[in-house]
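Re: [ENG-882] Designed sequences occasionally contain unexpected residues at chain ends

Forwarding the minimal case from QA. Structure tokens:
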């Protein structure tokens, strides 16, 4: 479960409670599971734990004031609010809960909470009588209605000598719970490997054989699979697009390199999506030096590249395999035959040309499996990718 926190950007807000001494341990544990943590502290929090401690454990300067010229120059509060994948206020005092509920923006932490689009989670910590108070309980109900996640508090002995509910939930349990916030979606926790883009098959040191694939469909699928909670590895031929956030990428050039990279990943792969336009042939010999135009005819001898998707289909322990069939005629018939030949669980068929398909921003596809055949209307590749990932998740679970 904790893997869901890898590379997640957590903005930790610390308010003035004795439980703030545990916030340093919380940061250390969050970083241990791969999260990136930035800390913002209220004035009162600094009475319990120093910004220096929080800076040392987080590895970043601590944000302390709403209007701090130096901090704003490095990363302004709006930028900080946008940066976060999750805002976690731990500990959250009764006063902070009241001000968050009221929509205040009169200090750094409340302003960050108002400005962020990220989910907000609070871990309340206070005296048991303050927690039980009807005003705190009313605030709690409103915050929950506004989709604020509330973790704890737990019951036990308190720093003030009382016994009851009001102790901040332990950092180790907090991490387990916030992991679940990210572990949602149809592909939560699954390992998805996607190939994308064209390959380059070298002729000589400066020339190669390639095709018109831009990688857009594969990249859009990687983004959509990640959004659905999967751990995504994108094995990508040469394209000029940035890799989507939180997707691991393995750049490759030739079909042989792509084959090796894919095969290495297969033992832990749950779903394999072959969206690359792999070159079917490579030069039998690659010239050491640039070929000059001395001859009127130059002959290239080509040999077959491995079929990556079909090779995955031959594995004894194979993942759920999704392939593509880009065809210019008899699209559905050819796609069905290809799915069976390559032992794929599902194939996504599309007609090439007419402003859709390879190289274009849009696509229009038919999804075919042994159990279904569904046409998806022309749409952008990003929109189609989300629909396709939903269908793949359903069929995988079948
Ligand atoms: O045979 P064809 O190239 O039309 O098959 C397309 C499907 O097979 C796509 O999913 C593509 O990514 C995959 N493929 C592959 N390795 C190859 C050729 C195609 O993985 N060498």
């Amino acid at each position: 479960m904790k893997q869901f926190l890898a590379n997640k950007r957590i903005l930790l807000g610390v308010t003035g409670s004795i439980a703030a001494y545990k916030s340093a341990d919380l940061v250390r544990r969050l970083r241990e599971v791969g999260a990136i943590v930035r800390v913002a502290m209220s004035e009162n929090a600094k009475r319990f734990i120093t910004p220096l401690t929080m800076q040392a454990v987080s590895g970043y300067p601590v944000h302390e004031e709403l209007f701090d010229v130096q901090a704003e120059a490095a990363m302004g509060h709006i930028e900080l609010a946008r940066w976060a994948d999750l805002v976690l206020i731990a500990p959250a005092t009764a006063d902070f809960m009241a001000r968050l509920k009221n929509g205040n923006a009169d200090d750094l932490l409340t302003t960050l909470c108002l400005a962020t689009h990220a989910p907000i989670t609070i871990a309340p910590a206070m005296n048991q009588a303050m927690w039980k108070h009807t005003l705190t309980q009313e605030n709690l109900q409103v915050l929950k209605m506004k989709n604020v996640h509330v973790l704890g508090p737990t019951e036990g002995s308190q720093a003030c000598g009382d016994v009851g509910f009001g102790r901040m939930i332990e950092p180790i349990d907090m991490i387990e719970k916030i992991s679940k916030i990210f572990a949602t979606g149809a592909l939560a926790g699954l390992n998805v490997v996607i190939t994308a883009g064209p390959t380059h098959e070298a002729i000589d040191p400066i020339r190669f054989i390639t095709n018109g694939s831009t990688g857009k469909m594969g990249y859009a699928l990687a983004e959509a699979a990640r959004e659905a909670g999967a751990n995504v590895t994108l094995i990508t031929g040469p394209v000029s697009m940035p890799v989507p956030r939180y997707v691991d990428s393995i750049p490759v050039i030739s079909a042989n390199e792509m084959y090796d990279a894919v095969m290495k990943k297969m033992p832990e792969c749950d779903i394999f999506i072959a969206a690359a336009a792999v070159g079917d042939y490579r030069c039998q010999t690659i010239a050491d030096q640039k070929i000059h135009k001395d001859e009127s005819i130059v002959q290239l001898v080509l040999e077959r590249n491995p079929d990556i998707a079909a090779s995955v289909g031959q594995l004894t322990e194979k993942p759920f395999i999704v392939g593509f069939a880009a065809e210019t005629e008899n699209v559905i018939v050819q796609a069905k035959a290809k799915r069976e030949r390559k032992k794929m669980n599902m194939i996504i068929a599309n007609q090439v040309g007419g402003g859709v398909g390879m190289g274009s921003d849009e696509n229009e596809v038919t999804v075919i499996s042994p159990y279904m055949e569904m046409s998806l209307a022309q749409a952008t590749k990003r929109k189609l990718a989300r629909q396709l990932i939903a269908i793949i998740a359903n069929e995988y679970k079948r």
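QA comment: On inspection the terminal residues look reasonable. The radius of gyration is 27 Å. Proposing we downgrade this to a documentation issue.
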